[in-house]
Amino acid sequence: MTVEQGLNVELREKSEVQLIDLREEHAPLVDNHWEYQTHETIDYIKGCIQYNFGFGIRQTNQSELIAWIAQTHYGGGGMLYTKENHRKRGYGEMLVRKLTKHLAKSNQVPSVVVGSDNTASIRLNEKIGYRRVCKVYWVVFENH
């Protein structure tokens, strides 16, 4: 997606929820639900929130997050998650749209990384206007 396309993404907020900025205090919640969680990821997530940005959704008049997304170290969106009992309500789409628009307004090329087996997220991102441009491989080194 180009910056211009990102600027044209329509935000679709919902009246029953509030969209807020992620704060460092949200990092443990994000970490506990992240598929790639290790004993070291909490510091990584705190860094993403502190040095980049992220957005969360909470129900109006509630404090607990029900969904979130963050800009990762490589500049794109990641860690998108909606708690199971709040899925199928468009919250993930709302977050990806917000992240996309925010990146574009900052003159950053909007991008996301999605697991190749995550068909729901792939469809969601394609619906917003993203397209697959390459495969990314992660290499993990473990200290023994």
The main pleated sheet reads as: 4 strands, antiparallel
Estimate the global geometry from the Cα principal axes: globular
Query: Main sheet: which strands, in order across?
Result: 1-2-3-4
Structural class, by secondary structure, is alpha+beta
State the CATH architecture.
3-Layer(aba) Sandwich
Ends: how far apart?
A: 41 Å
Q: Helicity level, as a percent range? A: 25-40%
Count of DSSP strands: 4
- Spans of at least 5 consecutive residues with low confidence: none
Give the amount of beta strand, in percent: 15-25%
* CATH superfamily descriptor: Gcn5-related N-acetyltransferase (GNAT)
Number of domains: 1
CATH topology: Aminopeptidase
Radius of gyration: 15 Å
Q: What's the helix count?
A: 5
Mean pLDDT: 93
- Taken in chain order, the helices and strands follow as HEHHEEEHH
CATH hierarchy, class:
Alpha Beta
GO molecular function, one term: acyltransferase activity, transferring groups other than amino-acyl groups
Domain N-acetyltransferase: 9-144
Protein name: N-acetyltransferase domain-containing protein
InterPro entries: Acyl-CoA_N-acyltransferase (IPR053225), Acyl_CoA_acyltransferase (IPR016181), GCN5-like_dom (IPR013653), GNAT_dom (IPR000182)
Structural overview:
The chain is α+β, with helices and mostly antiparallel strands. The protein has one domain (3-128): Gcn5-related N-acetyltransferase (GNAT) (Aminopeptidase). 33% of the residues lie in helices and 17% in strands. It contains five helices and four strands. It has helices at residues 3-7, 27-33, 41-51, 91-105, 119-128, and strands at residues 17-21, 54-59, 65-71, 77-82. A four-stranded antiparallel beta sheet has the order 1-2-3-4, with helices on both faces. A hairpin with a 5-residue loop joins strand 3 (65-71) and strand 4 (77-82). Helix 2 crosses helix 3 (41-51). It is globular. InterPro entries: Acyl-CoA_N-acyltransferase, Acyl_CoA_acyltransferase, GCN5-like_dom, GNAT_dom. It comes from Cacopsylla melanoneura. Residues 9-144 form the N-acetyltransferase domain. One of its GO terms (molecular function) is acyltransferase activity, transferring groups other than amino-acyl groups. This is N-acetyltransferase domain-containing protein.
